[in-house]
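Course assignment 3, question 2. Fill in each field.
Student: A.L.
Task: Predict the tertiary structure for the chain below.
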Amino acid sequence: MTHYVADPVYLNGQFKPLAEAGISPLDRGFLYGDGVYEVIPVYSRRVFRVDEHLKRLQATLDGIKLANPLSADGWKEVVLKLIETAPWDDQSIYLQVTRGADDKRDHAFPPASVPPTAFAFSSPLVTTPADIRAKGVAAITVPDLRWSRCDLKVISLLANVLARQQAVEQGCAEALLIRDGFMKEGAASNIFIVKDGVLCAPPKTQLMLPGITYDVILELAEFHGQPVKIAEIEETELRAADEVWMTSSTKEILAITTLDGEPIGTGQPGPLGKQMWQWYQDFKNTVMRKG
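Answer field:
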């Protein structure tokens, strides 16, 4: 599916057509993957959980010792301008900050005089079609070969890219990452399981990206009295689960019904996943109405 980028885009303090937005080939994002990013969903031209996304952006910038080029209010102004000028009501806003472009290639940080590169754009928000949601998707498991700071949302995503491509080549929607016998997350999603009516989630550690949707699901579970267990999930528990979900800002809650060619539970989306999806829609609509 093609994802289009709206004009204008934001680059270093200016809004300009995408074709006119250029960066130096010496930019450290290009040379080293030295940068961070965020993806923020927009529903009916209302941004969803922007404060939480910007807080995570700041945490990642702090984690790689990179100054934020904009305040939270400054980023919000950029986001609102992109939403306003894009042709779609439901959007995905992408933010990226790199360590900028020095006049030489050196692994060490450039001088403080080198400004970071700030880039942002809007594209259509593509969520899961109802027919796919109704039957669920297939996934595979792969070894987790990433570095040890998976909690930072950095742009150097090669291990995730390779894992996701392996899934695509096997006709699957996601690759679940296994490290030392434990399931951490998906290549581009968080993962929940359900066993005997209990919703199970891996804890937030340096080996998992803290998802915004992950937080919403746990909040909704608490609000509705749904039993929750937050603990490391063994690979054997994953395979024996009654339900497995992948979650993200764009996928929302999507059932994984087949794992490595074997059915999860009944091989169909389970009742708790369907209920959580509805809770999520109700919550999202309430938040959007409040503005």
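Instructor remarks: The radius of gyration is 20 Å. The mean pLDDT is 96.
Grade: pending
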